């Protein structure tokens, strides 16, 4: 005798309810780095566009930064921690694989007995997390999901390697997603994602030094040729056109990459007044944290307003990539 399995009631989709971010207090300038490695402020600005970055103290835990960003996002959403039933932490820099960050972060925030898991898609991690959260909500498996991108990349840097120590930094950004009551309220578009595992060694942890190594030119060529089509596909899947995008928020990997991809979006029909996130200038590359960090900083500066249509594009180690369109609350 067959028995039907009951499923949770689905909803039209998900929407973003709030944003939050957190960064260490310590600012490290290009001149500071030039005292240790053979570099200069001019060289760093020309190569990657960074002027300064935030670096956590050695004793600061990644989960502390993540919890701070998550708490702010919950408050911004007008919710309490007890309203959250699922916590996702995107990170590639936890000191150990066990225990995961999500359960620790949830406890620090005061979220009670949530579904909690980590995911590692490196710099594409936040977009992967938002996609997973939106699908959980749409399927009825979750109601309010906290998605955090958090990294403490300083723990994995060789501070004598100028090709990496000038780029990476620490921080966390977060979003709370909830259900859309009607189709008109849906605020998170379909996820377009993928990977290129044949190029997995382009960004890696070197076993001998236990530090990040990157083939910069290879990553630059890949990102400037492969990412714009991913962004355009996400717009298409959302039923929009490039002209509908108010704000372009790519992973903050390199200012030249950001500008190259934006140029291709403009050629495809994006408006000239489309705002472009350039948080890398003062935050550096914070991997999975970079997209929500940039959004929260742009909101604070009045560069993002309620109802703006944002195009999020993450890409990095793996090589992995993902993009989606969201409407900001």
From TrEMBL:
| Keywords for the protein's UniProt record, in alphabetical order | Acyltransferase, Cytoplasm, Fatty acid biosynthesis, Fatty acid metabolism, Lipid biosynthesis, Lipid metabolism, Multifunctional enzyme, Transferase
Coarsely, its chief localization is cytoplasm
Pfam families assigned to the protein according to its UniProt record, in alphabetical order: ACP_syn_III, ACP_syn_III_C
Locations listed in the record: Cytoplasm
Domain of life, source organism: Bacteria
Q: Which residues form the Beta-ketoacyl-[acyl-carrier-protein] synthase III N-terminal domain?
A: 117-197
Instruction: Give me the ranges of the annotated region ACP-binding.
Output: 252-256
Reactions mediated catalytically: malonyl-[ACP] + acetyl-CoA + H(+) = 3-oxobutanoyl-[ACP] + CO2 + CoA
| Known pathway | Lipid metabolism; fatty acid biosynthesis
Claim: Transport is one of the keywords in the record:
no
Q: What range(s) does the Beta-ketoacyl-[acyl-carrier-protein] synthase III C-terminal domain occupy?
A: 236-326
- The active site annotation covers 123, 251, 285
Q: What is its EC number?
A: 2.3.1.180
| HAMAP family in UniProt | FabH
Q: Which NCBIfam families match?
A: fabH, PRK09352.1
What information about domains appears in the record's comments? The last Arg residue of the ACP-binding site is essential for the weak association between ACP/AcpP and FabH.
Question: How does this polypeptide assemble, per the annotation?
Answer: Homodimer.
The UniProt function text for this chain reads: Catalyzes the condensation reaction of fatty acid synthesis by the addition to an acyl acceptor of two carbons from malonyl-ACP. Catalyzes the first condensation reaction which initiates fatty acid synthesis and may therefore play a role in governing the total rate of fatty acid production. Possesses both acetoacetyl-ACP synthase and acetyl transacylase activities. Its substrate specificity determines the biosynthesis of branched-chain and/or straight-chain of fatty acids.
> What family is this?
Belongs to the thiolase-like superfamily. FabH family.
What protein name applies here?
Answer: Beta-ketoacyl-[acyl-carrier-protein] synthase III
Protein's organism? Pseudonocardia eucalypti
Gene encoding the protein: fabH
